[in-house]
Structure formats: C-alpha cells, structure tokens
Design brief:
There is one protein chain. By secondary structure, the chain is of the alpha/beta class. Among the domains are: 160 residues, ANL, N-terminal domain (Rossmann fold); 97 residues, GMP Synthetase, Chain A, domain 3 (2-Layer Sandwich). The protein has 15 helices and 26 strands. A hairpin with an 8-residue loop joins strand 13 and strand 14. Helix 1 packs parallel to helix 8 and helix 4 crosses helix 5. The relative contact order is 0.09.
C-alpha cells in the first residue's frame, strides 16, 4: 500500500462523506480525491516524476492536504515546510533536498521566489488559490470528478516524504520516510486509538509538524473527518467548534493543553462526544493530566512519546494514566522499544540508558547526511535490520513501562517544536555587539521549555533584551525566538575553549 491509497480508498468507500472542514469550507472525500488527481496530472505535465521532491510551503488549508496527496499520486516526494520559515532556511531546504517545485500561496510567494533563485533544482513554483483554481476547474481538466485512482506510480519502498527537523549542527535534517514507513506508523497509531470512520478530529497543529501532518493522513486512512484550524489563537471559537462539529478526537501539545486549562468557563462533561485526547511533543505535567480528566471525565487521555525519525515510539494506555502519571507507556503496536547501554546491550529495569526503537516505522535515514544517519541507525539484533537510537535517556519500571529521563543532545522542545540552540545562536551572532551567546531551555509551565539566550555583549553596543528579541523575531520562526535574554560579562568555557552550554545551564539552576 502507498499513502495516496488512504485517500482514494476512503473516497471509494465514503464518496459523499465530509473529509475536511476548514472555516466555512466542507469538502467531501469524492471532491478531495478528484482535486488531488487533477493536481497530480498538472504536476506530471510540468515534469514532476517518480522520486522528485516537491516542497509544500503553505499554511494549514485544504490546498495543503490536496497538494500532499497530489504529489504522492504523481510518484513524487513531498516536504511540508512551515509557512513561518525564513528565507535562508527555506533556501537551505530547497537546495538540500534538490526540490524540483514549490507549491505556495500569494502571501508567501515573494519568499518562495527569492529562495528558489538560489536553488537551481527548482523548475517552477505553483501558487494557490489562483493557479489551483484553474487546474482544479472541471473545464480545464480531463479528469472527471470520480474516485478512481490513476495508475500506480511506484511501490511502497519509495520515499513518500521528507520531514525537516532541527539538527544539533544548526541546520535542519531531512528525515526520509517511505510509504511503508508511513503506512506502518499510521496503522499502529490508528489501532491503539481505535480510530474509525465516524471520528471527527479537530487539529490546531501545523501540517508542517509531523503530529499535525499525521492527523490528515490518519483521517484519510480510516475515512474520518478532519476539522482543520490554523492555530489555537481563539480558544473560545475552537471550543464552540468542538461542540458544534461533535468532535471525537483532539490532539494536543502541552502549550495548547495549558491554555485550555486556563479557561474559566470550561465545565466538566461539556463535550460528551469527545472520545479521546492525545498528547505528545513533551510530557504533560501530572497536575495538567489530573485537571484534564476532571474536565473530560468520559474522554480517554493518551500520553505519548515520539520523534520525527519514527513518528511515534510509545503510548500510555489510558487505564494506566492514574497509576503511572510519569510514564510515556509501552511500545506502540507492532514495534519494540527498549533501553540499552553504550554497547547496545539491554538494561534491566530501573537502570538509565538510551532508548532504541525497532519497527517498520523507523526512517531510512537523513537526506544527504550519511554520517548523521550512521549515528542514528545502528545494527540491530538481526543482520538485516537497523535500530533507531533516539538519543534520549530512559528507564523502565518492573512491568516494562518507560519513563523519560533526559535528552542526550541539546535540542530543546518548546511549544511542541524542536529547537536547535545552534541555529538560534547563529542568528544571535549576526547582531552587532554580540560577542558570545549560548541558548538553553528553561522549564516553563505553558511552553514546556522556554528558550533563553545568555549573551555577552560589547558594552558600547548598548544592547537591550528587546533589541535581541526583535532581531531574532526577524530571522527565526516564532517558536525559536528567545523568551528571555540574560546579559553576562562572559560565558563559561570547556577545556578546549568552546562555550559550555551545560555549564550555563548549571549556573542557571
């Protein structure tokens, strides 16, 4: 099975069922599949073929979902990039994956066009909604509005997507996922969530974030309805939508959960249709879990752990939530997750080591980065496989339930997003007057971890916290911008003269 089969199978089974709700727009599975087929044809006519990469640089919208399935149906590989991505980073991504095309929208056209100038591989850009309207209009397409999929354009071992995630070097890494990887992950997750065609999932998560992306993929797989929102900016509006659309599934990150719990007029049991809530990106504080259970007494709450390199690693069965509030659970169905020492040997319960993942959902590697791939994917117990070494430290209890201890690298999870300290530091050093900089994560009740910049500046520069934050806001996505800035005369160094982030963190405690 290939990922585009999710959409076309559901269109055959439920042609008139609503697949997508976005604002006032309601799109059936029949219409969604037909639009994806028309766009796939247009992409092929412009030279997009098997294995070529197409960057989808759009906000949360039906056009993003259409583009994803169209790229797959054309036999190509999609990469959804956050619309808040700045010029330099977008240009890096286009060059890194050798993108052949960019699908974007009017407000992002200027950035996309400028980035494409420095990416020789890009043959064309396609903008919504104007060019889309022409492509998707019946009079300009030979494809009729039926649910028949076009001829196969590849097999399940082909790449389906490249998901860019922050790397410790300051440059994003492209995680390569095949159709087989995606199908494996989606099948496992929908199994333990007991997902079904009568589910209605409300997602405020970016489609560029794999947690948000999989909401669209998994809904298409089971024939469910996705209520797609751009953000959680107006909680009262979304609560109204929860009630009005009779939402059954609500994926959250800790930031969204914290905002939700601050609403004073949220009464227990107000959403009887809500069957489940999921959480990932960072662990929910036990107090937040308890409060969610009070407000949603009939709702199953799934605490989960995952990383882009395999989508999902573990989940805690809801029945265990009150018994093991600090646990992220057990391996998802059809996979294995266990803790090893530095030699790769399994460790007994209670001993801290690195978590490794075994399963069909494990990535194929990082695009164009064999060294990073070799560090992450290492020989497994059998000669034909590789295990994913997560870089995270865990321990298990006597019954095998997993507990997160710490990250081995410096990546910070803030607002559900992964932030590379190096990438933020690179931007800080572009500000005149900054001599030394270290970026660390500090605990925050809403963000999970907040980005803090510790800076040594030239006294004559007269830099203020506001100057630093404003500079970063111009160059970085909003979730990467430091929340606070601390000025020091100098920063601690290691024996080889490098700034020691770990020592900075110790001094902040």
């Amino acid at each position: 099975m290939r990922v585009e089969d999710f959409l076309h199978d559901s269109a055959r089974r439920f042609p008139d069922k609503i697949a997508l709700i976005a604002g006032e727009r309601r799109i059936s599975y029949r219409a969604l599949a037909a639009d994806a087929s028309r766009l796939a044809q247009a992409l092929r006519s412009r030279g997009i073929g098997r294995g070529e990469r197409v960057v989808v640089f759009l906000d949360n919208s039906p056009e993003t979902v259409i583009s994803i399935f169209a790229v797959l149906q054309a036999g190509a590989v999609f990469s959804v990039v956050n619309p808040g991505t700045k010029l330099d980073k977008l240009a890096y991504i286009l060059n890194n994956c050798g993108a052949r095309a960019v699908i974007t929208e009017p407000r992002l056209e200027a950035v996309a066009a400028e980035a494409a100038k420095s990416a020789p591989s890009v043959a064309f850009t396609l903008s919504t909604p104007f060019e889309f309207s022409e492509i998707l209009s019946e009079k300009n397409s030979e494809i009729t509005s039926n649910t028949k999929q076009q001829e196969p354009t590849g097999i399940d071992l082909d790449l389906a997507m490249i998901v860019y995630t922050s790397g410790s070097t300051g440059f994003p890494k492209g995680v390569m996922m095949t159709h087989q990887n995606v199908v494996s992950a989606a099948t496992s997750i929908t199994t333990y969530l007991e997902s079904a065609a009568d589910d209605v999932v409300l997602s405020v998560l970016p489609l560029a974030f794999d947690y948000g992306l999989y909401q669209a993929l998994m809904c298409a797989k089971v024939g469910a309805t996705l209520v797609l929102e751009k953000s959680f900016t107006y909680p009262a509006v979304l609560l109204d939508k929860l009630r009005r659309e009779r939402v059954t599934g609500l994926p959250l990150v800790p930031t969204v959960a914290a905002v939700l719990l601050q609403l004073k007029d949220l009464a227990p049991g107000a959403f009887p249709d809500l069957r489940y809530i999921t959480n990932t990106a960072a662990a929910l504080p036990p107090a937040h879990i308890a409060r969610l259970q009070e407000l949603f007494p009939a709702t199953k709450i799934y605490s989960m752990y995952g990383l882009t390199e395999c989508k999902r690693c573990t989940y805690l069965p809801p029945a265990q939530l009150s018994l093991r509030p600090g646990s992220v659970g057990i391996a998802i169905p059809g996979t294995e997750a266990y803790v090893v020492d530095e030699a790769g040997r399994k460790l007994p319960h209670g001993v801290t080591g690195e978590l490794v993942i075994r399963g069909g959902h494990v990535m194929k590697g990082y695009w164009g980065d064999p060294q990073a791939t070799e560090r992450a994917l290492r020989p497994g117990p059998f000669p034909w496989e590789k295990l994913l070494y997560t870089g995270d430290l865990f321990r298990t209890d006597e019954e095998g339930y997993l507990y997160f201890v710490a990250r081995k690298d410096d990546i910070i999870k803030s607002r559900g997003e992964k932030v590379s300290p190096k990438e933020v530091e690179n931007v800080l050093y572009e500000l005149a007057g900054v001599r030394e900089a270290a970026v660390v994560g500090v605990p925050d009740p809403v963000l999970g971890m907040a980005i803090k910049a510790v800076v040594s500046a030239d006294p004559d520069a007269g830099l203020t916290e506001r100057d630093v934050i404003r500079h970063c806001a111009k160059r970085l996505e909003d979730f990467m911008v430091p929340k606070t800035v601390e000025f020091r005369d100098g920063l601690p160094k290691s024996a080889n003269g490098k700034i020691s982030r770990s020592q900075v963190m110790v001094e902040l405690q």
